[in-house]
User: What shape does this take?
Amino acid sequence: MNRRRLRSLTRRLLRAERRPDTLEISLLLCDDATIRALNREYRGKDRPTDVLSFPQEEGPAMPLGWAEEEIPHVLGDVVLSVETARRQAEEHGGALQEEAEALLAHGIFHLLGYDHETPEKRAAMRARENELLGEKSVWMRGRAGEEVEADHADAGNDLGEPREEEAR
Assistant: This one.
């Protein structure tokens, strides 16, 4: 997997969302056992998933207008199962790199405050992802007609408190 492309995608998405380059996002590429344990601990779901997002702060993402010269701000963590991403890429006839990029982008959008808890929020998240990623969006990669299920959700806050609501 090309980590440089993942970093570049992260920067591009943050710029498109008018966020400063001083934002920090950690990415953990892991296996199904690791993400299953996190999914069980933070979401109460004893199964692997493709991506989880752990925002560092409750509420909306860092407000627009944050001064870039201020200290770096940790937006949160994205955890991506390479095993699940590989399976999904095969199912959709795509490459692992493209699947990982789509999932990373989806996780970053969760960190930025997007979610798909309601039809309106789902439509807004889908539209923004599709606008910035086009056919590489998770919504366009073989899943556009599927209902969004509670699988790769905003997992919790400060890596401690699971969210009650279900997203994807």
